[in-house]
Amino acid sequence: MAQGSFELVCEIEPATTPDLTRVRHQIGVMAPVASSFLIPDNHIGRATVSSVAVAHEVQAMGGRAIACLNARDRNLLGFERDLLTAAAYGVEEFLFVYGDKPVTGGRTSELGVRSMIEHARAATDSAPFSGRGSVTRPFRLGATTRLTPVPAWKLDVDFLFVQVGFSLDRLLAWRDTIDTDVDLYAGVMVVASAVMARRLVATVPDIEIPGELIDAVATDPEAGIDTAIDLIAAVEASGAFAGVHLVPVSRYRQVAARLEQR
Fold it and tell me: Which H or E run contains 8?
């Protein structure tokens, strides 16, 4: 759904308790700069409030939302329930992900990202979704990709979120290998601390945080914000991406203030 302008998709920190006060605050603070919000699903293997429910909350506050759905935690019946709930709430955009290793328990193993895409597309013709008019694709669907060759089935989506990175040159080199009209969103993360950076490097496959950035954040907490703001501007200036998927973590207030100054 290309909109002719650079989009900023802001990821919020999901609620791990029934209290949505912090979620609402993030939405309110980021709303002036965000094109839309990504709502994580059972983030880093911990139970969170339903991404569909929070996406509905975003829409009630006047925003646009993308609900993340995690293959790790769903069987087919649970997935169909989520699609029906989303349709009832008017939530029509999804990011499908494979999912991190759960903190407790294991994977259901019944669904993967590819099968979720196929089932969501097929839902268009199913009886529960009749009456939705002549729309052939009632949901806008997305997936994630690393900076590696993208399989053909992943290009049958509406958008792709590209893994978080810190090098514009690497992003552009990868972009030159992809011939697609699918909307691509570059991943940009605010590194809030050196401890956070080292933990990510140790636990997240393929993420590369420059050592000089880790050292800079260790002495200046604003360095992570500066780097993210500069990369957003560089990605936009390149014209190679539909937008950025921004992960501001706990620094969303400072990031929003800086983005409003642009």
Answer: strand 7-11
